[in-house]
Amino acid sequence: MDILRSLRAVSEASGTGVVDWAKAGEAAKASTEPGPLDLTPTDRRGYAADVRDARTRLRAVAGVAFDVPDTIEVQNRHHWIDANLDTFQNVMGPIEAATTAAVPGASRIANTGSMAFALGFLARNVLGQYDPLLLADDPAADHGLYFVHPNVVAVAADLNVEYPRFRRWIAFHEVTHAAEFGAASWLSEYLESRVERGIDGLTAGGFDRDAFAELQTAMTAVEGYAELLMDRAFDSEYADLRRKLDERRGGGGPVQRLSRRLLGLGLKRQQYERGAAFFERVADERGVDAASAVWDRPEALPTSREIDEPTAWLARVDP
């Protein structure tokens, strides 16, 4: 980690855009140790076996047809930054395009520093990622499935759980997202349209509340359904993993808690909790097949009110 080099990269931000993306990536990597990626043959076989087992178990439990992406990468933290830099840039692209006046150098430096901070913080904390490539330049590109190996090893040690078992847990969680996007061919386009509407509103100087509300509700369904499948598909003994990960989501020191709040990660925790409660109620009353009906069509997504009142969704959709 070289904080001075990171600060120097940010201070050298240039160009005409809102963010100097090359310098943001450089600064993020300078402030973040890449972490070891000395995978043994056992490690490689373990990741592959975990993904295959998760696919088989989730197909059986969810009753949905899906496959895992062709792109499955075991990464270090710098690899993760490189893989996600384009995503950040694609989200910011419309805002940059709408900026007609030249961006003052000081603003560009501040924006570049903010993006470098976000990329670095996430790279040090993300364990695995299913990447649906929202807003990608090539809409036909295959989705990605990433595991940040140094983080998986470090968090397993921090939580005092066996690394192979923890790695398997992360694989199952990320493959649940592959199940969702595989079961709902419309989901990527639905999420993209809400992101684009929200960004369009911001660039026009407004705020599209409906777009952001629909996006938040859909992501609550995505995270909640994943939690349901994890509980039903993973190995029989998982209560300790669930408890320790829930504590980790809300724990850490003051700087980590502030960073999570600034990056909106507290909202993600709420999505897990609300979504999980909704799907557990539906599955308890009607079974997992009924819960999977949420991916039949966009209209089957629960509304924000229905997430807190699952019986209302059941009455409307009648899966």
Query: What is the SS-derived class?
Result: mainly alpha
Strand content: under 5%
> How are the strands of the biggest sheet laid out side by side?
1-3-2
**Overall pLDDT, averaged?**
85
Radius of gyration: 20 Å
Helix and strand sequence: HHHEHHEEHHHHHHHHHH
Task: Report how far apart the termini are.
Answer: 52 Å
Shape: globular
- CATH homologous superfamily (4th level) name: Zincin-like metallopeptidase, N-terminal domain
Task: State the CATH topology.
Answer: Lysin
Describe the main β-sheet briefly.
3 strands, mixed
Total beta-strand segments: 3
Question: What is the number of helical segments per DSSP (H or I, 4+ residues)?
Answer: 15
CATH architecture: Up-down Bundle
CATH C-level class is Mainly Alpha
Residues in helices, as a percent range: 55-70%
Q: Are there runs of 5+ residues with pLDDT below 50, and where?
A: 254-263
Notes on the structure:
It is built from 15 helices and three strands. It has one domain: Up-down Bundle (Lysin), CATH 1.20.150.30. The protein has 319 residues and is mostly helical. The radius of gyration is 20 Å and the shape is globular. A three-stranded mixed β-sheet has the order 1-3-2. α1 (3-11) runs antiparallel to α2 (21-30), α3 (41-62) packs across α7 (163-183) and α6 packs across α7. Mean pLDDT is 85; it is low at 254-263.
Features of the shown structure:
single chain; 3 strands; mainly alpha; 69% helix; 319 residues; globular; Lysin
Topology:
Layout (H helix, E strand, L loop, with lengths): L2 H9 L9 H10 L10 H22 L8 E5 L1 H22 L6 H21 L2 E4 L12 E5 H11 L3 H21 L3 H17 L5 H25 L5 H12 L3 H9 L2 H22 L1 H5 L11 H5 L1 H8 L2
Parallel strand pairs: 1-3
Antiparallel strand pairs: 2-3
Helix pairs in contact: 1-2, 2-4, 2-5, 3-7, 3-9, 4-5, 4-8, 6-7, 7-9, 8-9, 9-12
